[in-house]
Specification:
Blueprint (H helix, E strand, L loop, with lengths): L5 E5 L3 H6 L4 H8 L4 E4 L14 H4 L1 H18 L3 E3 L3 H14 L4 E3 L1 H11 L1
Parallel strand pairs: 1-2, 1-3, 3-4
Helix pairs in contact: 4-5
């Protein structure tokens, strides 16, 4: 019967989107994974509040950015967030835990590896 459809949204890390101008490629990769539905995230290219050490030196503003990001993630209906930056990954995991959200946050390659294991 196969696994149920995985609903994923993609958070663009600032360095990848703004610094390296890489935005379409991660989405193409995610869309190529069987049984995965990619839903677009409002303001996907806005900072999550991690920004290197920004969340450590400006925690109040970083938390505002994180709360905004998590509101849009919840609104997307996704159960999984993919992001290519370790700082963003940790920031989103921490925020989801603090808010009690049943949200999985992973690198896009993790989802690809899982799909290969299932095939």
């Amino acid at each position: 019967m196969g696994r149920p459809e995985l609903v994923v949204t993609y958070h663009e890390s600032c360095h990848l989107a703004h610094g390296q101008k890489i935005t379409a490629q991660p989405r193409r990769l995610l869309k190529s994974i069987p049984n995965l539905r990619l839903v677009e995230l409002i303001e996907s290219n806005w900072c999550c509040g991690s920004a290197g050490i920004y969340n450590l030196i400006q925690p109040e503003m970083a938390n505002e950015l994180l709360d905004r990001k998590l509101r849009y993630i919840k609104a997307s209906g996704a159960t999984t967030v993919a992001t290519g930056n370790p700082g963003c990954l940790l920031q989103l995991i921490t925020g989801a835990r603090q808010q009690g959200l049943p949200l999985r946050v992973v690198h896009p390659i993790t989802l690809l590896a899982e799909a290969y294991r299932e095939s």
